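@channel sequence for tomorrow's demo:
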Amino acid sequence: MTTRHAVIDTAMLGPVTIVADDDAVTGVYFRHHVRRPAQELFGAAVSIVDDDLLGEAAGQLHEYLAGQRREFDLPMSPAGNDFQRRVWERVGAIGFGATVTYGQIAEQLGDRSAAYLVGQAVGANPLCIFIPCHRVIGANGSLTGYAGGLKRKRALLELEEPAMVSAGRLF
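structure tokens (generated this afternoon):
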């Protein structure tokens, strides 16, 4: 196999494009996604019925949006530099219903002053939702930046809100 993609419709987020290369998911994009790669880089359009990996990714995304899944269990291979990958690893460890700030991630990486760079890396995350960058918020608890737009970020956080309320963590 090579690079290919499928577009799935979701009631909450609108159309979502899932991209895979060989045996790993490499991208999740919205129609008006900030930093959306050129369409030709997505490879051929395929049906989720005919592609096991994209079918599984679509199924897990639908389960998450229906409140039936809290984690994703997919092979993922986001393209990025070493720093970005370190940030995405931290973002991927943020639990369902939890939020952290850019500064907290920078501190975890050893340099609290690198919050801006962390923000840049979070913004470049090619696997939004699967690597849950919507769970990263501003230092004052505000919703800042999301490649899919703040409306989608708010919707995803509200989807997880019952867990946040029960854990005493509100954004």
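heads up for whoever presents: The chain has a mean pLDDT of 91.
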